[in-house]
Amino acid sequence: xxxxxxxxxxxxxSIWYITNSHxxxxxxxxxxxxxxxxLHPLFLDSTWLIRHFDDPRLSRxxxxxxxxxxxxxxxxxRPSQLHDSYVDAADIxxxxxxxxxxxxxxxxFEGISVNAALRLAALWPEQVLSLTLCDVPPxxxxxxxxxxxxxxxxxxxxAPDLDSFEHAGNEVVTFMxxxxxxLDLQDDLIAYWEKYTPPTKRLRxxxxxxxxMNRTLLRPEELSSIVCPVLIIQGExxxxxPLKYAEKLKQHLINVQGGEAQLYVVKGAKACLNxxxxxxxxxxxxxxxxxxxxxxxxxxxxxxxxxxRERSKVALAKLAEFVGxxxxxxxxxxxxxxxxxxxxxxxxxxxxNLMFYAKDLDKAYCPLxxxxxxxxxxxxxxxxxxxFQGDKHGNSYIDTSELKAARNYKGYKQSHSxxxxxxxxxxxxxxxxxxxxxxxxxxxxxxxxxxTTYNASSVDKHVIKGTMQKVITQSTQLPRGIIxxxxxxx
Length: 490
Prior knowledge:
The structure is a single chain. The protein has 18 helices and eleven strands. The chain has helices at residues 50-53, 56-59, 85-98, 110-123, 143-157, 162-177, 183-196, 202-213, 220-224, 243-252, 277-292, 308-323, 344-358, 400-407, 409-415, 417-420, 435-438, 484-487, and strands at residues 3-5, 13-19, 35-39, 63-67, 76-77, 104-109, 128-134, 230-235, 262-266, 460-465, 467-472. Helix 8 (202-213) packs antiparallel against helix 13. It is globular and about 60 Å long. 43% of the residues are buried.
């Protein structure tokens, strides 16, 4: 099976990968072709890169390989409060060394992948021939994105039934892609999330959001150390990754080959450049032309003269120099978690959130049937009006049958309380501090804990008494012990 295990004393991770070779492995790569590593977008996995693997402009000219990030797709790991983009970069570097991959061109999509690719090029420059970054995110999340993640996470992780999970999935589709009426896209995305990240696997989503919400700026020294050619492809109309941040990154990459990074703007593109067919084709065209201008390299699988342990020591020493913390150089070079730059207060906060979401994980709702497949397509749901669905003018309606169901809602909730109810969450307090001190008007302050990953307010519980009302639960204390069993990988 195409898994690569990275053994270490304090970590557990097994990375899944796919290739475009005949036998699906690296051993059948054509040595005469250059190699390209593709990094998938947020909340998805390598299967969503199919529009690039199937494009003859790439598949006929290059050896392609894509990895599932440790918390995505078929990869497996033990949840960790130390997981950040430096750890993702270390995962890629160690997997490349284990597979004896030659230096490769990197194509990275969106937040986590772009940040990991930049750190890989800074700490392991010999493994990167060029960087192509699609939809470069802000240095830290925009304020409105904080609130969106906060609300969507609650809907997703504590969905009590299929309708609620599909509603959460539809909201995430709109948030990610800007598309609200593409039923085929909604069907595919929601079906994927039902299978790979249902509420029963919510710790994976929590860990992903940890990385996004608490990421820190790349230092000028790190950006200036990147010397390979860089291409930035940015959607013109993306709200999550505005164009101005791609322009700022271009200005900070002062030592790249050619004098400056290249920036290509996809006109009218909102987001998810690898999913929408038109945008994906444009990305392939621009990327293939960029690669054609680079020197042609071979992909001979040769063992390195330097062991993985020795090379990791060099990378740790370089990271310690960037960060200004000499203790980093003394960490275990065999563990990807040794590259973590998560600060102590943020790590404590993230651990508490992982512990909290691990509570009653075995009672979480699963939207799959007994055969392990989704029960239906999102587009096949009943078309009756629902209280959370409005018309094109924003008005919501409810019919007589819905009103009758609403009268029995309280009894329904009580009969399903053992499996559907979400636990009470602590109100924002000592861990979240003052919200005004955590985020600015536009971009969250970097280099400090901005939240306990997201707002640790109550999970919304809906009780219908004539009309739907939100009731915020009372605060409770977080568990003090580590829920070891619940945090082990499934």
